[in-house]
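Table S4 entry, NAD(+) diphosphatase.
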Amino acid sequence: MTEKIDVFEAAAAGSLESIKTLGRVHLEAKNDRGWTPLMFAARFGHAGVLEYLLSEAKVDPNVVNKDGKTAADLAELWGAAEAVEVLSRLAPSAKKATVATPAPAPVPAGSGASSSSNIADWWKKRTIHEIKPLHFSGSIINRLSFLRTDKEYLQESVQAPSTRFILFQDHGVLFKSTTKHLAYASHNDIKDLIGPDPLNNLPEGLVLVFLGADEASSPEPGDSHAEILVKGRRGIGYWALDLSAKTPLATPALKASIEQFVNTYTEMRPATFGLSLSESGLVSQARSVVDWNKRNQFCAGCGRKSLSLEGGHKRTCPPAVLSEEDGKEVESDCLAHRGVQNFTYPRTDPVVITCVISRDGERVLLGRQAAWPKGTYSCLAGFVEPGESLEEAARREVKEESGIHVGHVMYHSSQPWPFPNTLMVGCHAEAISEDINIALEDQELEDARWFTRTEILEALKGSRSATFGKPVEPGVLRLPPGTAIAHVILRAWATGEGEVPQPRM
C-alpha cells in the first residue's frame, strides 16, 4: 500500500521526488492558513522545488495567504536568497502584497524582514543617550553574592554597629516620619528581637535577608564607624528584616521591639515611588526576597519546614528529621534529597510590556482596565509563560488583549517591580494589523485604542512626575508616571530618542 504524501510537508522538507508524484490539484492546494506548497518551498528556501513548481507544474505565483503574502514575500521575509533568485527569474511579474491582514502566525522577530519594517528603520535612526536608571533599579550596593556562603562574614555583618536594617511588616515598609526616606534600624535596636544567633536560630515568624554592602559610600574619616571592617572589607552592610510574625507569642515582642521608633509603616504603593533611586533599589531587592521567603517556608516535596541559607537567598529541606518512633534524628526520606532539587532560590516572574507601533510609525496602541482611574491608558503587558520567548509572549499578549497581530519585537530596557517579584521587560513592537477587538479572547481590557504621536507627547508632559491614579479632567489622556517603564518606552518612541538607563556600579 502506497504511503500518503502530505504535499505541504514535502514542500517544506524540499522533497522534490515526492512533489513530482503529485498532480496539480495537490500542488495548488491551500492549508487552513492559505499557504500553498510554493509558499512552503519559498519559506524554507528549496530552490529545486520552486524550479519544478514554477517551470513545469506552472503553479500560480500570485496567490496570497491569509497574511496577505505571496511566495515571493515569504522568501524575502525569511532571507531565503536562493528562493528569491528563483522567484525573480521564473516569476518576475509576480505581484507582491501591499496590505497586511490579521494572521494566525505573526512574523517572528529577526526573520530578515528588516528591510521592509518601519520599526526596524526607526530603531536604526534613534538618537541614543543615557538616562538615569529606572525606578527600583538604582541600588548602589554590592550584593556580595559570593559571600553569602561565608557564615563568619554574615555573622560579623549582622552585628556590625554600622549595619542598617530595612524593616517590613505585612505589606508595609518603615519610613521616617513625614519624610520620603526609609527608616533604618541598627543591630542594637533589634538585637533582642533576632537573638544572639539569627543566622542559625532566628525566632519563629521572622525573616532576615542579607542585601549587601554599600562600599562606595563608607563612613567619612572621623565617623565613629569609619574603621569598622567586616572580614577586612569596608562598607555599610544592609539587611532586611520582616516583622510580620503571626504567632501569638511573637506578636507582643514584635510590638515592643519597634515602639522606640518614631516612624510609620507605610504601604509599598504609592509611598516607594517617592524614594530616591538608591533607596528604591534597596526596597525592590529587599521586598522581593523577603516575600519569596515568606511564601516558601515549607518543602514542596514533603511539607516540612524548610531552612533558610545563604543570608536568606536559598532554602532547603532539612536533611534529618525526628523519628516518630523514638524521637531520634534520622535521615529524611524526602524526594527533594534525591538529586539537586533539594534547594530553592528566589524567583523572578518576567512580564513583557509592549509599546505597539502602527505600520506607519505614527500611532501607538494603548489599553485600560476598568479598575483604573478614568482617562488612564498604558502599554499592553502580560506574564511570560514557560517555554516562551519574550518576543512570543509580546505577540501573544497583545493579540489576546486587543486582537492586534504583532511582527517585529525589539527589546528596550527592563525594570524590577517588587509587587511582589516581577521583572518588567519593556519592548517596542510593530503591528501588522489595525482592527482592535478587545472581546476576542482575554476580555481583560475595558478599552483599547490607537493614539497619535501628538496625543502621547501632550500626555507625557503631565505624567512625568505624577502619581499613577491621580484623577484627571474628563477626556484627558493620562499615562503612567515617569517611575514606570511604560512611560519610558512611550517617551522613547514619541521623541524618537533611544533612551538607555545608565549603569550605577
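The first helix runs from residue 7 to 13.
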